[in-house]
């Protein structure tokens, strides 16, 4: 009987998880863009913060820096010197113990020779290279010392060699020499342009067990990169020692190379690697701390990892021109932080990729732009957030329109249906169009297409001409109202275009001059450091919009934090004055009077406590009959949208 055990899946991303909802990334970016950040930086900040399903670059960067500190505290770099000195002292002690009972002159001569050894460990080892040990235990200790040095030296060049050559035989060392010679020959062949992938495959078939790192090199370039990074780390390990330590260790390494018979071959390999990868850090020390002494191989590994982490720190920081998530080396992340970090990195890459593929952003990395699709999404999100506030939600059971049926008496005429029409459907004409086009199918079925539909024309359709005038002056940015104003404009635009598509909506921004703002440009709109609050020009543009839609119900909403300080001269230039001039006030009130004659009420949303401003808007309300609203700035969007819906229902 088969038995099964179930547990949490931990081998990468959940294969059953739903695809990433890139719309939430658009919303996250949108909040920054609304606050004045350009899309490129907004995306970068999103990737740095991370998402609900993935840690951000800042989290990975913090983990990299913690890992660097852990490595620096792993231990000191002079561990091999300590081990070599300990083995040498043991061998000398064992030899003296053997010589002491011997009364012969030879024993005294040997003792004198041992006493005259230099204090320098490498010099002492070199002097003892031809010494004939009387004590077998001492000979074994000295052989252990030489074996240690040989394995440590090879481990600085080929990671894992120290363990691989434990209890090695002469045949093992001969095979290592053959591998180094074959590697040099392969590099020479590549230099001449004669190397092939087949040659690399044969090399790995013969010596692949000497390169146990994962992932295994797949070609000569990857092998060279791996060996060069380790060789550079070994060089930096030497630079990190004190001059005395460096001199002693270099002497021990030279002695080990000479004993192994690979001195020239290893020097040749080091030169070839440095020539191929001069871009690596081949010099410079590293601060290492800790109580434990590290062997040369382990110290080299630590410095190699520190170099990888330093490169990873740079790529995760993204503080260079043209930086992107694709620049982060996935293999380096896997080596330093593990599989989970690789999964997080892939999810972040998916965010950037899906934003492009799903049509939310476009353009080069340094000139990223939001698409109209992204702007519509931001408007819908702004509207959704407005209605998410309980203070802005419609009452239970309430409806947007209190009237039933169509908005006017039928004229008897019909016209083709267009998207957004709310007139009653003329069923007879619609069926006639479908049958005339394709006829009836067996069984009396009729297939219809959108262009078959016709609606009954009415005397007057229920439509509104909506104008939102938004103050974009410098004071709005100073009061941190910039993002709120843009979000309000986008929420209103989304509401009108989705729920009242027959309406005509216009967004006007005004500072020293006024200008109509296209909906696709609202999100990325930046404030301009100019002086002036030209409400007169904004009302002038709104009046033209109302005149173009004379049969529509006029709705004009004004959002401002300051009294008018600019107006248009006769030549079209802006006249700015502070305190506001009487000419500016008179010109603005003249446009208010024109709005009143059009039957357009002005509802003003006041965002500042200024006695002069309050006196001005009170005069506007007296002349026009509109309302003055002093909203909580955090709920500006809700006030404006709710006001529009109230007036829209009254007009229906």
UniProtKB/TrEMBL annotation:
InterPro entries in the record: VWF_A, vWFA_dom_sf
Domain of life: Bacteria
Span list, region Disordered: 387-416
SMART domains xrefs: VWA
Family annotation (Gene3D superfamilies): von Willebrand factor, type A domain
Domain VWFA intervals: 463-646
Protein name in UniProt: Uncharacterized protein with von Willebrand factor type A (VWA) domain
């Amino acid at each position: 009987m088969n038995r099964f055990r179930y547990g949490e899946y931990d081998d990468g991303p959940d294969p059953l998880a739903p695809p990433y909802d890139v719309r939430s990334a658009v919303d996250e970016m949108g909040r920054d863009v609304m606050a004045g950040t350009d899309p490129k930086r907004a995306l970068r900040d999103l990737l740095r913060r991370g998402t609900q399903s993935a840690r951000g670059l800042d989290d990975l960067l913090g983990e990299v820096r913690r890992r660097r500190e852990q490595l620096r505290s792993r231990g000191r770099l002079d561990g091999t010197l300590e081990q070599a000195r300990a083995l040498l002292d043991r061998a000398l002690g064992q030899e003296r113990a053997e010589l002491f009972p011997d009364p012969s002159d030879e024993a005294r001569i040997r003792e004198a020779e041992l006493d005259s050894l230099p204090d320098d460990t490498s010099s002492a080892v070199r002097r003892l290279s031809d010494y004939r040990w009387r004590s077998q235990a001492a000979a074994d200790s000295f052989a252990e010392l030489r074996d240690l040095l040989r394995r440590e030296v090879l481990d600085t060049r080929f990671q894992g060699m120290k363990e691989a050559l434990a209890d090695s035989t002469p045949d093992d060392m001969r095979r290592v020499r053959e591998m180094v010679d074959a590697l040099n020959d392969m590099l020479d062949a590549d230099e001449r342009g004669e190397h092939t992938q087949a040659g690399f495959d044969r090399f790995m078939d013969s010596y692949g067990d000497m390169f146990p790192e994962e992932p295994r090199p797949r070609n000569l370039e990857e092998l060279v990169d791996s060996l060069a990074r380790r060789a550079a780390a070994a060089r930096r390990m030497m630079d990190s020692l004190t001059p005395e330590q460096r001199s002693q260790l270099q002497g021990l390494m030279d002695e080990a190379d000479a004993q192994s018979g690979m001195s020239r071959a290893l020097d040749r390999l080091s030169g070839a690697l440095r020539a191929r990868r001069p871009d690596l850090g081949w010099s410079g020390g590293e601060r290492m701390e800790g109580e434990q002494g590290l062997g040369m191989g382990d110290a080299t590994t630590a410095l190699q990892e520190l170099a990888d982490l330093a490169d990873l720190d740079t790529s995760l920081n993204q503080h260079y021109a043209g930086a992107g998530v694709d620049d982060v080396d996935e293999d380096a992340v896997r080596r330093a932080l593990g599989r989970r970090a690789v999964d997080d990195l892939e999810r972040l890459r998916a965010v950037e990729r899906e934003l492009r593929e799903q049509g939310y952003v476009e353009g080069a990395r340094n000139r990223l732009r939001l698409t109209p699709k992204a702007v519509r999404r931001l408007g819908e999100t702004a509207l959704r957030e407005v209605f998410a506030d309980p203070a802005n939600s419609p009452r239970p059971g309430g409806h947007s329109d209190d009237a039933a049926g169509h908005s006017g008496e039928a004229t008897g005429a019909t016209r083709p249906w267009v998207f957004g029409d709310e007139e009653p459907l003329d069923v007879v004409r619609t069926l006639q169009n479908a049958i005339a086009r394709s006829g009836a199918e067996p069984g009396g079925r009729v297939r219809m297409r959108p262009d078959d539909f016709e609606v009954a024309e009415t005397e007057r359709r229920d439509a509104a001409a909506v104008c939102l005038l938004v103050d974009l002056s410098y004071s709005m940015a100073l009061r941190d109202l910039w993002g709120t104003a843009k979000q309000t404009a986008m929420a209103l635009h989304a509401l009108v275009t989705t729920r009242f598509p027959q309406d005509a909506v216009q967004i006007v921004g005004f500072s020293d001059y006024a200008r109509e703002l296209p909906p696709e440009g609202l999100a990325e709109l930046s404030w301009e450091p100019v002086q002036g609050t030209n409400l007169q020009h904004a009302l002038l543009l709104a009046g033209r919009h109302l005149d173009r839609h004379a049969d529509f119900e006029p709705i004009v909403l004004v959002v401002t934090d300051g009294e008018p300080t600019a107006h248009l001269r006769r030549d079209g230039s802006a006249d700015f004055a502070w305190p506001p001039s009487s000419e500016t006030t008179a010109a603005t009130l003249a446009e208010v009077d024109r709005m009143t004659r059009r039957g357009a009420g002005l509802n003003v949303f006041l965002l500042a406590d200024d006695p002069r401003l309050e006196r001005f808007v009170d005069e506007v309300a007296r002349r026009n009959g509109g309302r003055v609203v002093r909203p909580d700035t955090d709920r500006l969007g809700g006030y404006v949208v709710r006001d529009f819906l109230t007036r829209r229902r009254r007009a229906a």
